[in-house]
Amino acid sequence: MTTPKFPDNFLWGGATAANQLEGAYNEGGRGLSVQDVMPNGLMSAPTPEPTEENLKLEGIDFYHRYPEDIALMAEMGFKVFRISIAWSRIFPNGDDAQPNEEGLQFYDDLFDELHKHGMEPLVTLSHYEPPLNLARKYRGWIDRDVIAFFEKYARTVFERYQNKVKYWLTFNEVNSIISAPANGAIFEDEIEVSLADKWQAAHHQLVASALATKIAKEINPDMQVGCMVISMPTYSMTPDPKDQLAVRDFMNENYAFTDIHARGVYPGYLKRHLREAGIEIKFGEQDARILKENTVDFISFSYYVSLVQAHNPQNYQTAAGNIFRGIPNPYLEASEWGWQIDPIGLRLVLNDFWDRYQLPLFIVENGLGAKDELIADGADSFTVADDYRIDYLKAHLQQVGEAIEDGVELLGYTSWGPIDLVSMSTAQMSKRYGFIYVDRDDNGQGSLNRYKKHSFHWYKEVIETNGASL
Ligand code: BG6
């Protein structure tokens, strides 16, 4: 193992999403988002109205407590903080004529607070939280109209924050839409949705992402726009060439999204895949040109698990994961939620993306969801002895160091959920990722007080030494 050497301007920090921490779902003129009716996680059925059991409605009350929380991130030395803008705070119904000034002002204040502490905001435009109206009045992203609504939203926030935000991501985990259509405001439990519809929605998001990149550059060429995907190195179950081919097919379905974002054209393997599935994507007249002319500045991704695939996966049991699943890997241990832990996989992903695109990369999510126990720390304080989290992050960051040594150009690393927040896949509070513990349980009970875990002090030292302490 080499001693990791991170670049001098490396962006260390943490990543969050509005729907998982802001709360205040009906304050400040905000409209409902799809998450407000999904009390059991992204892959579950929506309810007709928001229900009390939905922990995301209150989140961790970041909306009211963000100055205190950002001060804690600053204490760890964060250089960057990833948030998402809740689209429904800006355009409450998605299709409104005018933006909501109170929503715009909230993010103005939040960005000012970050800059006060010398932190760079990294902002996702759409993190699994489109306005609910787009799902109920339209067919979500299956409808082409949604591109124009998104364009207007993107233009509004780019214009407003052009001097406050340099780094932008368009769609969180854009490659998840086929498996998790709620990402695209598509409720399969409420409308009939075919596979062709899902690919059409994916196409619309790809075009919208390219249009957002175009608009950003027109407004301020210094703004850097990236795509964001779930990354998953995938191993072959056996040396059988058929299994190897199955791995390639599986990876291609995901590479398609970065290929289109980075190269601006639909790759041949995707065209073939769609053709053989009998799917014909309807291209608008300008779509091919829009994709070609507006490729991204950098590639960002989340990394949690690696997968194993085979040509006959039905013969094996399935491993757990957030959206994509494979076959359990006997060489790897798993988290309490069954997600298999593979630090070397992160080095592989970094090298693969770098070799493929030669574009700067950004790790914008990585971390361990675990149950934490709050214990006494002196007379009147509490902490969590989360050495398991430190072990996980340390092993991953060491592999990041190896990848940098391999020659990969990496802008930064934001661990997922630096402060505990509500889980995306299970909507639980008990699945915690933070360096900061938030006192709230799965029933919504708790003081919402914040406590520093052991990992807080560990991460502070990692940042202070620019990774040399790893
Ligand atoms: C990513 C999402 O897939 O995984 C986040 O972008 C999510 O929103 C994270 O929280 C971890 O997943 P979970 O289900 O443990 O919250």
From TrEMBL:
Active-site residues, Swiss-Prot/TrEMBL: E365
Keyword set includes Membrane: no
Pfam hit, one: Glyco_hydro_1
PROSITE patterns listed in its UniProt record: GLYCOSYL_HYDROL_F1_1, GLYCOSYL_HYDROL_F1_2
GO molecular function, one term: beta-glucosidase activity
PANTHER family xref list: 6-PHOSPHO-BETA-GLUCOSIDASE ASCB-RELATED, GLYCOSYL HYDROLASE
Name assigned to this protein: Family 1 glycosylhydrolase
Gene Ontology annotations for the cellular component aspect, listed alphabetically: cytosol
Keywords from the UniProt entry: Glycosidase, Hydrolase
Protein species of origin: Fundicoccus ignavus
Family per similarity comment: Belongs to the glycosyl hydrolase 1 family.
NAD among keywords: no
GO biological process: carbohydrate catabolic process
